């Protein structure tokens, strides 16, 4: 770091004091992580803005590392934030530090300074790109009510009425015979909302092996205040009263679902901020729920035809953010994507094909072309022949006679 930058950060930067942290604890800020030494007391020279502080307790005897925890915080100029370590819970203490204690630490800053590690300034420019649309208000809104983002969320029992999945199998002679049929023919289908008394109604009682396994799982849900509060992706992908033709259209073009999500935001570009927040919570916070939401947002944004014309700004920043995120993914994660050509690749190909057919122009077109070239060079993904149907999307001829009873 050059002297001018160091001087500016020393004067204007924030300070995070973390007292009582055991030696060898994993501690980090943003994309940097260390094992603490005995005299570690925190971080200094933190650039003003949003930052992600995270930590994991390490067992002295075995070296086992606990699941990661952390929180996002907007540091203001010269802010002095103090937290304590709770030895009993091996976690950050929930107790508030008194103003008197904080002032004593400030007065003793000269002696405290040598125990504070400087912020790793070499990651700052990269960090600003990854968080360009996450405001302090948005981070607070999406974080758990407790304020702590955990890789392993505390779970508690829930009632059957609250349970989102699972089935009840009626122990009647009919259901038992249906189960026997299922054993003989495991590839059975269920029918949604069958007409009462129809043969489909009887078939609907048939349950798959996966349903039965799910039904035997313990009834658990996140403890109050511990779950990430992401915007729910609409389950109904079409407006009420849609005709069959309209339903088909909305499943192929999910612009309606995207519009519903945007309407729940204070600012349209918050949808990109949520994408960035979810990415950081799984990349840094190791949250699987955040990974699933990140993936679902990519699938949604890549499945829109009409919306790409109405919300060019959203899609412009979507492409910019996604390129930055892919560049920062761990090699093993990228290797899995490349080898399996997973859903991210397929949905991006669909997105590029939509942009090609829609004749997107201007800055968005230039950025998309640049992104395609970048992905091809980095991951060897093939984005040629975008006007041709994918092999698994070609029309399938079905012989209806085989389904007649």
UniProtKB/TrEMBL annotation:
Domain called AAR2 C-terminal: residue spans: 230-383
Disordered: annotated segments: 162-221
Compositional bias annotation for Basic and acidic residues: 171-183
Gene3D superfamilies named among the record's database cross-references: 2.60.34.20, Aar2, C-terminal domain-like
A Pfam family assignment: AAR2_1st
Listed InterPro entries: AAR2, AAR2_C, AAR2_C_sf, Aar2_N, AAR2_N_sf
Family: Belongs to the AAR2 family.
Protein's name according to its UniProt entry: Protein AAR2 homolog
Species of the source: Chilo suppressalis
């Amino acid at each position: 770091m050059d002297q001018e930058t160091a001087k500016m950060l020393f004067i204007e930067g924030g300070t995070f004091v973390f007292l009582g942290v055991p030696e060898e604890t994993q501690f980090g800020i943003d994309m940097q992580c260390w094992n603490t030494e005995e005299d570690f007391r925190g971080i200094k020279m933190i650039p003003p803005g949003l930052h992600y502080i995270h930590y994991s307790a390490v067992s002295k005897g075995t070296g086992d590392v606990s699941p990661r925890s952390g929180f996002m915080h907007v540091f203001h100029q010269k802010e002095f934030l103090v937290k304590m370590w709770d030895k009993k819970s091996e976690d950050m203490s929930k107790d508030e530090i008194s103003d008197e204690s904080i002032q004593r630490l400030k007065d003793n800053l000269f002696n405290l300074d040598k125990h504070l590690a400087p912020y790793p300034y070499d990651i700052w420019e990269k960090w600003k790109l990854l968080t360009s649309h996450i405001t302090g208000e948005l981070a607070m809104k999406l974080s758990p009510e407790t304020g702590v983002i955990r890789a392993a969320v505390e779970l508690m029992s829930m009632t059957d009425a609250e349970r989102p999945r699972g089935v009840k199998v009626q122990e009647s002679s009919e259901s038992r015979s249906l189960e026997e049929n299922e054993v003989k023919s495991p590839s059975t289908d269920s029918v949604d909302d069958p007409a009462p008394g129809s043969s489909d109604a009887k078939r609907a009682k048939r349950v798959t092996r996966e349903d039965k396994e799910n039904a035997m799982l313990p009834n658990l849900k996140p403890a109050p205040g511990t779950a990430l509060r992401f915007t729910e992706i609409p389950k109904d992908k079409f407006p009420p009263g849609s005709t069959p033709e309209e339903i088909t259209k909305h499943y192929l073009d999910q612009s309606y679902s995207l519009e519903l999500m945007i309407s729940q935001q204070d600012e349209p570009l918050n949808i990109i901020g949520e994408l960035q927040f979810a990415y950081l919570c799984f990349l840094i916070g190791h949250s699987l729920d955040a990974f699933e939401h990140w993936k679902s947002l990519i699938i949604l944004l890549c499945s829109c035809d009409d919306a790409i014309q109405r919300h060019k700004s959203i899609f412009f920043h979507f492409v910019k953010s996604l390129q930055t995120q892919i560049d920062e993914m761990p090699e093993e994660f990228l290797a899995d994507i490349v080898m399996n050509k997973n859903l991210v690749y397929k949905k991006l190909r669909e997105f590029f094909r939509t942009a090609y057919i829609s004749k997107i122009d201007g800055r968005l077109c230039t950025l998309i072309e640049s992104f395609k070239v970048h992905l091809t060079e980095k991951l060897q993904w093939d984005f040629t022949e975008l006007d041709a149907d994918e092999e698994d999307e070609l029309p399938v001829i079905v012989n209806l006679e085989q389904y007649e009873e």
